[in-house]
Amino acid sequence: EFLTFFLSIRGLRSIPSLSKFRRLRYLWINDNKIQDLTFLIKNYSLTELYLNNNELTDVSGALRHLCSLRILFLHNNELKRLGKTVKELKGMISLKTLNLFQNPLAYDPDYRLYVIYSLPSVQLLDRKLVTPRERESALHLCNPKRAWVMQSIAFGRRVDTSLGPTVGSSRCTQLARGPIMPSVLKWFGNVQVMDLLCSFCRVPFEDPEDAVLVRAMTRSLMEFSSVDWNKVATCQERRLKDKAEEPLEKLTVQFR
After folding, report:
1. What span, in angstroms and rounded, lies between the C-alpha atoms of 26 and 71?
2. Which of 17, 55, 121, 214 is most buried (most C-beta within 10 Å)?
3. What ranges do the domains of the chain cover?
């Protein structure tokens, strides 16, 4: 049974169903005039698919079953709806290489970061390697709440990217608030108690230890009690005394 088909540069406008080639893995259909992909409905084993330089305007319902796909070329077509196109590709957990450039959807201002966030398995997008910095930026843009949580807990390396609101973002939500910062120290005797001011800011913790302290302050409580043992009667003294003992003074201190 055929594992590879070359149907490039043949002026094809349509292709009959390839369902009988269930083990087909490599398919070149680039540089034709294809507008419909229903002929791929049974080809679950495809790992490389080259559809570039055609006349595709929509891929909805035609590619989502290709879970084994590793390489997908869709550049230089007429794909206009970024969200709809990316949604179709989300099930491709093995997808490593993706080309979508030279489509109308690629002119969306958030295009590259949106694709990087939505398709985390992709390592090479439009012939450019996806960098850790881009993944970081994509998270801040498309899921600012998660980005804030990851940054505020101060585990590992602190991200230097500002957590301020994204201006002009049409697809992703904006971050409105920042982390809570430790503030006031109050002293009572020799017991130190730290309070937190619930003031919001738009910058991350300057010192990772501040974030760790915030977590400790809000999640733990310790209590210590002590008495003056010099005032506690011994067993012998208790037997010799006729009067009742006065209750001992106990000092209790709570720490967060």
Report:
1. 10
2. 214
3. 3-144, 222-255
Can you tell me the mean pLDDT for 227-247?
69
CB 24 within 8 A of CB 43: yes
Are the CB atoms for 75 and 101 separated by under 8 Å?
yes
Inter-residue contact 194 to 205 (CB < 8 Å): no
For residue 137, give the amino acid letter: S
pTM: 0.60
- CATH superfamily of the domain spanning 3-144: Ribonuclease Inhibitor (3.80.10.10)
Percent of the chain with pLDDT over 70: 62
Q: What number of CA atoms fall less than 13 Å from residue 25's CA on the CB side?
A: 6
> How deeply is 82 buried, as exposed, middle or buried, from its count of CB atoms within 10 A (0-12, 13-18, 19+)?
buried
